[in-house]
Amino acid sequence: MTAPVLVIGEALVDIVVPAPRAPRNGNGKTTATPGGFAANVAVGLARLGVPTELVARFGTDPYGDQLGAHLFGNGVQLAPGSVDPSFRTSTATATLDPAGVASYQFDITWDPPALSRPRGCPAIHTGSIATMLEPGAGAIRKFLQSVADQPVTVTLDPNARPTITPDPVPAWAAIRELAASSDLVKLSDEDCRFFRPGASPDEIAAELLSAERTQCVVITLGGDGAIGISRDARVEVPAPAIEVVDTVGAGDSLMSALIAGLNARGLLGATRLSGLTAEDLREVVDYAVKAAAITCTRHGADPPTAAEHAAKWGS
């Protein structure tokens, strides 16, 4: 594959505030590091050897310069208009608890440049705040509708962000609409509890798989691993035992590895996951869970390279 995967969404700077008396979480210091759902996924894909183009919007202020250097340094292409000198770069404040788990507050504006699919692009990925915050959310909905008949696989990762969408009912309705245009949907157990309180992961997966296009749902379970559910298979993959430094960017790292694993099996593009077997599903989810585990052993959103993954897990 030479044409890039297209990733659409927020690129911002994570201001990570460590938990009191937890020196392993940033050595007690507040840090500012490049992040944002889309930037993290794009970097994760590039580090795993998948050509990637990012559609985002950030400025040329100090935070924007930090973001740009990070993205270019990791081989991520930027779509035209992603860097805007008139734009103030967004931030997310991630406050860690003693276990290294992050909660977020956002200072963000989301108004993307014009969206178009690069020639030959095999997959489009979006999610998180970008699919909920206007005016960008509306632009994404229209774009996904415009490529519905094109030979491209669409993946979606709708993170629960109560500070952005405090009412889960309309938020879930918006997710269902986007999921109907997506081949794979990934959620965390926290997302499930917020959007669909009282529903089991299998019930939520069944809801999403009722859409004609959706072929696969992956639900992550934190330290317990992840579940992968397709129309023909269900797999449970445990997480390896690790010492968690923090969870910043872990879900994004897992998402990158899901896309990379599907790409390695020739399941992106016009195939739209057709031919996905139970063995494929287990191996792809296992690969992704192990990528997220590596990220959790490091400070901030720092996804592994393909070589680091292979050295750690032997695959």
From TrEMBL:
InterPro entries noted in UniProt: Carboh/pur_kinase_PfkB_CS (IPR002173), PfkB_Carbo_kinase (IPR050306), PfkB_dom (IPR011611), Ribokinase-like (IPR029056)
Q: Which domain of life is it from?
A: Bacteria
Molecular functions (GO terms): ATP binding; kinase activity
Identify the residues that the record assigns to the Carbohydrate kinase PfkB domain, covering every copy: 5-304
Provide this UniProt record's keywords sorted from A to Z: ATP-binding, Kinase, Nucleotide-binding, Transferase
Similarity remark: Belongs to the carbohydrate kinase PfkB family.
According to UniProt, the name of this protein is Carbohydrate kinase
Provenance organism:
Kribbella capetownensis
Q: What is the lineage of its organism?
A: Bacteria, Bacillati, Actinomycetota, Actinomycetes, Propionibacteriales
